[in-house]
Amino acid sequence: MSELKELIERFIELDDDLDKKIEKYLETKDDIDEEFDKENEEQINEMNEIYHEIEHAIFNEELIIVSNANSEEKEVVALIISDEEDDVEEFVIPVFTDEEEAEIAIEEFKEQFEDNEFVLDKKTGEEIIADHSEDEDFIGLAINAPQWDFVIASEDVHDCSE
In Å, how far from its chain's centre is CA 42? Predict the structure, then answer.
């Protein structure tokens, strides 16, 4: 398993746990306050550190992207995340940590877009972000979507060593 996949799984685990704590806390309080933050400071700090590691890992790691091979020009699959009534079509690019995750997603894509033939390509997170940076509607990357619900904004992906 890739380090990126391990980091995200750990982050999701901590995030789910914190969500449960928030839910329980709000049973007796009106809002999240400093008391909650203090009680959970260690977990919140760990989540922040892991998220920062994820930002770096995505920047540098070679990820798998899925493209539609049937169009004239090979087109990267994008997931629209804005509502139908919105004037813009904000989107994320699904990227995958390994071929197994990509194949699971392709099966779902085939159910939605039956006539398409999908192919896999590899690029670093930095390259994928750069390819779409001019598009105002590009939000970021969806890691192992739709299996996971983990999106990272394009502006968060970076490498502190540069």
Answer: 24
HEC letters along 92-136: EEEEECCHHHHHHHHHHHHHHCCCCCEEEEEEEHHHHHHHHCCCC
Give the alpha-carbon dihedral of 101, 102, 107, 110, to 10 degrees.
160
**pTM (2 d.p.):** 0.85
Q: Give tens-digit pLDDT for 114-147.
A: 778 899 999 999 999 999 999 999 999 999 988 8
**Helix crossing, 125-132 with 41-60: angle to 10°?**
80
150: nearest Cα among 37, 13, 3: 13
- Exposure string of 77-90, with b = 16+ CB inside 10 Å and e = fewer, is bbbeeeeeeeeeeb
Cα-based distances in Å from 78 to 71, 124, 132, 138: 14, 17, 11, 9
The torsion angles phi and psi of 93, rounded to 5 degrees, stand at -100, 120
